[in-house]
Amino acid sequence: MRRRLDAAAPGRLTDAVRLITRHAFEVVADLRPTPQELEALLQFLTDVGYATDARRQEWVLLADVLGMTDSVTSTHLPDRPGITPATLPGPFYRPDAPLVPLGADLCRDGCGRPLEVAGTLCGPAGQPVPGALVEVWHANAVGRYENQDPDSQPEFNLRGRFHADRQGRFHFRTIRPAGYALPDDGPVGALARQLGLSLQRPAHIHFAVTAPGYRRLVTAVFDGSDPAIERDALFAVRPGMIGTIRPQGGGFALEVALVLDPEPPFPEPETSEG
Q1: Closest CA relative to residue 49, chosen from 187, 183, 185
Q2: What is the distance between the alpha carbons of residues 114 and 93, in angstroms, rounded to a whole number?
Q3: What percent of the chain is predicted at pLDDT more than 90?
Q4: Which keywords does the record carry (predicted)?
Q5: CATH architecture classification, 63-259
C-alpha cells in the first residue's frame, strides 16, 4: 500500500491517506486485532452511517465526542485576545431556520421559563457591526433540540435567524435552556459509555454571525451556573463564552456581547513593468 501511495498524485488527499494508513498499520501491529474485532470496527462505522440522516448527524457527533472538531477549530480559528472564541456548531445545527424580526419569540410551543436575550455585535475596536445576520439555536427546558425530538416539538422550535439593527444590537425572546447528555441511543453514545467518557453538556445557546468584512463567527454562550461547565463532553467551553443568566420579572435575562474578527485584507495584486 505504501508503494502504491508513493506513486499517487501529490496533494493534501494523498498526504492525508498516507498518514492515516501509516498510523492505522501501526495500530494493527501494536494491537494485533482479530478478524472479529476488525469486523466489529467496520460494523461500528456502518452503524454511524445508518444513524445519520437529514435530522441527525452521527458523524459530526463522533468527531465532536473524540475532540477532533474542537481541535481543528482551535487550530484554524485560535483564540485571539479581545475576539469572541469560536466553537463547533454541533450536530443539531440547521441552516434553514426561518428569518424572524428582532424581538421575536423563538419558543413555538410555550414550554419553559421565559428568557429575554439582548446582544451587541462589534469589531475589536468597539465599532458596531450593523445589519449582521444572526442565527440562534438551542435545546429546550429538558435539554432536547427540536430536530432530535420531532414528535414532541414543533418544527424550528427554539431556532431563528434575524438581522442586527444599525447599531449592531439584537434581541429576542425564548426560554431558558437546560443542560443535557449527548444522545446515547446511537453507536457514538454506546462507544462513549464503553469508554467511560462524559456525555454531559452544560446549558448553552448557539450563535452564528455573518457580516461583510468579518470572519463568520460560530460560538456559544454557556450558563455559568451549570454544574457541568467543567466537564463539557465536547471540550468547547472557553472563559470568554460563559454568561450570566439572571432573574428578571417572572423569568430570566441574558446579555451577550460578541466581538467579531475582521477578515484580513486581500493582498495587492503583483504588477510587472516593461
Answers
A1: 187
A2: 22
A3: 58
A4: Dioxygenase, Iron, Metal-binding, Oxidoreductase
A5: Sandwich (2.60)
Quick check: 241 and 87 in contact, CB under 8 A? Answer: yes
What whole-number distance in Å separates Cα of residue 134 and Cα of residue 142?
24
In the three-class reduction of DSSP (H, G, I as helix; E, B as strand; rest coil), residue 253 is classed as strand
Written as one letter, the residue type at 270 is E
Predicted pLDDT at 134: 98
Give the cell for residue 175: 426560554
Nearest to 3 by CA among 24, 16, 21: 21
User: Which cell is 145 given?
Assistant: 433540540
> Cell for 170?
439584537
Contacts by 244-252 with C-beta closer than 8 Å and gap 24+? 245/115, 245/176, 248/116, 250/114, 251/113, 251/114, 251/115, 251/116, 251/176, 252/113, 252/114, 252/115, 252/116, 252/176
C-alpha cell at 105: 419569540
Q: What pLDDT, on the 0 to 100 scale, is given for residue 267? A: 53
What is the pLDDT, as a whole number, of residue 18? 82
Strands (E), the chain: 114-122, 133-138, 159-163, 169-175, 180-181, 200-201, 204-210, 217-223, 242-243, 246-248, 251-259
The whole-angstrom distance between residue 235's C-alpha and the CA centroid of its chain comes to: 11
| Residue intervals in the chain for CATH 2.60.130.10 | 63-259
* Per-residue CA distances from 248 to 111, 113, 152, 271 (Å): 18, 11, 28, 61
Q: What is the pLDDT of residue 91?
A: 76
